[in-house]
Design a protein that fits this description.
Distance between the termini: 75 Å
Number of helices: 12
Structural class: alpha/beta
Strand order of the largest sheet: 2-1-3-4-5-11
Order of helices and strands: HHHHEHEHEHEEHEHEHEHEEHEE
Largest sheet: 6 strands, parallel
Shape: elongated
Number of strands: 12
């Protein structure tokens, strides 16, 4: 297997010059760099990641921390981030915190702090102040997706606004008895996303002059089975049946569509249904939704993180990051919603 000495001999330069040319650390003329790259290519030489890390002080590895891996949103964000990081020559190490509190402690007190990663991004994970402080104190840039973090650049959607957008769509179609499947303290997530979406739903109703009826709310767990069970309860009594349902996620909305069909109801003839996400199955079910573009959020988060890494080379550790960004969200109308007769 060829080594750095072989590349140096073929290119007619020193091993130190080869190291600078291939790592990008240190001055090397473009002509010399081209000669070194050509020699390395001819020999099939691959730079050792360990050697590169020693020379640059960087691992070229990014840590991604997620609360679960069995949710479509989290994996979609990771997919988008990985595309950008791989193009920039970075590996990605995934830390899944679906276990107990001890697992989380080990990740933040050991794995992320022992120079195994250059930077960290989190997905829908509300970090404690001491967790953020430890990462920033040793100069590790942090980017968050899903909610505000103190001293950290973040990317999020406005959950109240997207819920209002979905509910406003149903109101605009003439629906006055609109149910909601979503937020409760029992199923609340980091950053209180379900609660925020319920607030947006209620704000939309009040602005339209409609009452907020507790009988039209069912708590669920953001899954298809959870949405199915909640919709069965809402639609099971004919004289109290809503004419429309806003579900706080597409998976719950899909569950609601399946429940309506099992009850012999037509969607949208008997009940209109809308969700949030633009899940890959949404188009198949003809589901109207508010798209939050998780792959795009992941790509943008990775871009922000790489920019933070560039700034960290010249900025003091712990320097506060600029404010966060609000990710775009778009109403997509499909066949699951229609005007109330």
């Amino acid at each position: 297997m060829p080594g750095i000495d072989d590349v140096a001999r073929l290119a007619g330069v020193s091993t130190a010059t080869v190291s600078r040319a291939l790592s990008g650390n240190g001055p090397v003329s473009q002509q010399t760099k081209a000669r070194v790259v050509q020699a390395a290519s001819e020999l099939g030489y691959v730079v050792s990641s360990d050697a590169s890390s020693l020379a640059s002080g960087r691992t070229r590895n990014i840590g991604a921390v997620v609360p679960h891996l069995n949710r479509w949103f989290f994996t979609s964000v990771i997919e988008g981030a990985e595309r950008v990081l791989l193009r920039s020559g970075y590996d990605l190490t995934l830390y899944n915190l679906s276990g107990d509190g001890e697992e989380r402690r080990r990740v933040f007190e050991h794995h992320l702090l022992r120079n195994r990663v250059d930077a960290v991004f989190t997905v829908s994970l509300e970090l404690a102040e001491d967790e953020v402080s430890r990462l920033l104190a040793i100069g590790k840039p942090v980017v968050g997706v899903g909610g505000p973090l103190p001293g950290v650049r973040t990317l999020t959607i406005d959950d109240v606004a997207v819920a209002r957008l979905a509910t406003d769509h149903l109101v605009s179609l003439g629906h006055r008895r609109i149910a909601h499947i979503g937020g409760s303290h029992e199923f609340d997530l980091d950053f209180h996303i379900p609660t925020s979406r319920r607030l947006g739903y209620e704000e939309s109703l009040r602005e339209a002059g409609l009452p907020v009826d507790e009988r039209l709310h069912r708590a669920s767990d953001f899954t298809i089975p959870g949405g199915y069970d909640a919709a069965k309860q809402l639609l099971g009594t004919p004289h109290e049946r809503p004419t429309a349902i806003f579900a706080a996620s597409d998976e719950m909305a899909i569950g609601a569509i399946l429940a309506a069909r099992d009850l012999g109801l037509q969607v949208p003839g008997d009940v209109s249904i809308i969700g949030i996400d633009d899940h890959p199955l949404a188009e198949f079910f003809g589901l109207s939704t508010v798209a939050q573009h998780p792959v795009g959020q992941g790509e943008r988060a990775a871009e922000l993180l790489l920019a933070a890494l560039d700034r960290s080379r010249t900025s003091a550790p712990g320097r506060p990051e600029p404010p966060g960004h609000i990710a775009p969200a778009d109403l997509i109308v499909r066949s699951s919603t229609a005007a109330h007769p």
